């Protein structure tokens, strides 16, 4: 199974965010899955890759060429892209399921770009799981519901987004998808 994970590269984050990263990464590894992530050797991204690999996952990083110096050495494969747009495209193409852990503007952008691509292609066969630790995604979830209520987003698009309260629940959802 190919799991693309969107998350922060920050280090100075809530311990509950780091706990979610470790739990998800361990579960991905124990499933023997293939992790695709942003490829950085910094913060939460590095913790994700290192933990998943130690638990048995194969790991692919996808990073823009301009950030080559931040490439994580723990990966099995590193894909260098021209820019962030190509990075998102490569990460979307590789995934069977997407998981968003707490992150900032880049993470929100990745989630929304993924959802927009699904909407444009009218292909809603993949799922986006938001791991809503400490309510980090609650405003986004409410925004999606509002867009749906106002008929600005389709029911099919919004239905691709599944909310998990924590990383353990996200892993249960992944397993239930039978990919």
Could you explain the architecture of this structure?
The chain has 179 residues and is α/β, with parallel strands linked by helices. 46% of the residues lie in helices and 18% in strands. It is built from 7 helices and 7 strands, in the order βαβαββαβαβααβα. Strands 4-3-2-1-5-6-7 form a 7-stranded parallel beta sheet, sandwiched between helices. The radius of gyration is 15 Å and the shape is globular.
In short:
With 179 residues, the chain is of the alpha/beta class. It has seven helices and seven strands; from the N terminus they run βαβαββαβαβααβα. Helix 1 (15-30) runs parallel beside helix 2 (43-54) and helix 1 packs parallel to helix 7.
Indicate the multimeric state. single chain
Q: What is the first-to-last residue Cα distance?
A: 6 Å
Which strands sit side by side, in order, in the main sheet?
4-3-2-1-5-6-7
How many beta strands in the DSSP annotation?
A: 7
User: Overall pLDDT, averaged?
Assistant: 97
Write down the secondary-structure element order: EHEHEEHEHEHHEH
Beta-strand portion reads: 15-25%
Structural class: alpha/beta
Low-confidence stretches: none
Major sheet: size, sense and barrel closure? 7 strands, parallel
- What is the rounded Rg? 15 Å
How many helices does DSSP assign?
A: 7
